Amino acid sequence: MEMNEKIILLLKQNYSFPGILLTKYKELKLNEKELLLLIFFLNESDLYFNPKKIAQFFGYETSEVIILINSLCEKGVITLDSRVENEKRAEIINIDPFYHKLSFLIMKEKKCQEVDKNIFDTFEVEFGRTLSPIEYEKIREWMEVYSKEMIEEALKEAILNQVTSLRYIDKILADWSKKGIRIREFKKEAPKNVVKEELLEYDWLNESE
Prior knowledge:
The chain is mainly α. 63% of the residues lie in helices and 7% in strands. The chain is built from 11 helices and 2 strands, in the order H-H-H-H-H-E-E-H-H-H-H-H-H. The chain has a two-stranded antiparallel sheet with strand order 1-2.
């Protein structure tokens, strides 16, 4: 069984999982009414398409329920599947797409956490000490702006110049960004000493983090 299939199975069996949904629904681009409707579907055994029944439950107009369901379909969270029963065609609300989307978000978050941990470990190894909370926050800020490769190359540049200062690395990143240096250039040959002369004029020994 693949990882995403295991996550989907756990999500389906975990009765407390709506709590996960409350932290992820914005990433699924859902509004509050769509969220409530989705939770309704997740706790409903009868998933036959019946907008009038749903409207009565929420106190909505039937037309509003139809609009909400269409929106959930357009966002890829549910589908309306046709089924023939007793020679009659019925529409069923399929919530499997939601489980797939949520499992993808969870896997993506886990991967990002692993990347975060790796880059923090790299800094601590290169600096030869534990990072301070302020330094952790600064690196997180970089990761919202720069690629992991770019940050790692800036760290290498600092270590080559025997400087273990985030301010020094911040200056390197800003300078590379200003010069338009991109990730793919690092894969060939990382830029060296592009800001060395200017940076070494700073009194790094007396700086305060």
